[in-house]
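OP here, attaching both records as promised.
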Amino acid sequence: MNTVHHAPLALVDQHALYRIMALRVAVFVHEQRIVDEIELDGADLAPTTELFWMQDEDGEVTATLRVLVEDAVHIGRVATAADARGRGHAGRLLTAALQAYPGAVEISAQAHLEAWYGRYGFVRAGENYLDAGIPHVRMLRTPR
């Protein structure tokens, strides 16, 4: 059974943190070929940033996302391991993050995932744009 965890970087177990970062690099750098943007961009170090992840019984991280809190709450870096996709892991993490941050939340979604984020109450807030060569759309979720 995969369990949901969340914590600021300073409180994440070093083994889990390594696996979170390895998953992000595997998905964004190796799989999606995002090489012109720095994956480990320093934002994880901000005291208001919180990491969310799912870990299986063997300690493997199967999915992750991060919440940045600056002027607004922003969810990003949503990634699921290739062999764990289609099992609802990212949805469980997104639900957990939205419960932890019940106010207004924004995302920069890959455009092909607009309908998926829409299931969680996000709505388009502008035109598509390119980020790291991939079509994205800004989306917002406001409290109900």
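Record two, same layout:
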Amino acid sequence: MIAIIKYNGGNVNSVQNALNRLGAESIITDNFELISKADKVIFPGVGEASSTMKSLKEKGLDKLIPALKQPVLGICLGMQLMCKNNEEGNTVGMGIFDINVKKFPAKDIVPHMGWNIISGLNSGLFSGVEEESDVYFVHSYYCELSDNTTSVCDYILPFSASLQKDNFYAMQFHPEKSGKIGSQLLNNFLKL
């Protein structure tokens, strides 16, 4: 069973639909016991960082998520809130990744929206995925490069397109909107 964390961030239904297409059972929940006992946990997100973090704190999910031992996948805002600090709303994150989240400089169109190439693939999650594959992004803030970076995208500047530390995986792009490549990535996560 896959637990998709329910909070005031959007996009949970499209993640569940993508899992359904792969034949995976999932539940959208904020129940501590169901999340703790799930085989895998997905922490998706579309929204604003400070209000979303406030919602997580109100439910105690900000303490539960970093304590999980099963594979956890953060997507988009979910990835950013797994980091240390976020410039959006001057938000303190969960600190799973010791990385800062910064706003893109206004040297090009922000938000970064649409298909873009990822490279430097360095994780089992990318099994069967070719270098310089196109995936779908929608974001105005980016995670800095670090030792936890498992793929890179270059838009205005190079940034972490994905991260991994222990049982925590994260993607800035949306696998549920990234066609065959996204399905492959989600399937690889399900097989962890």
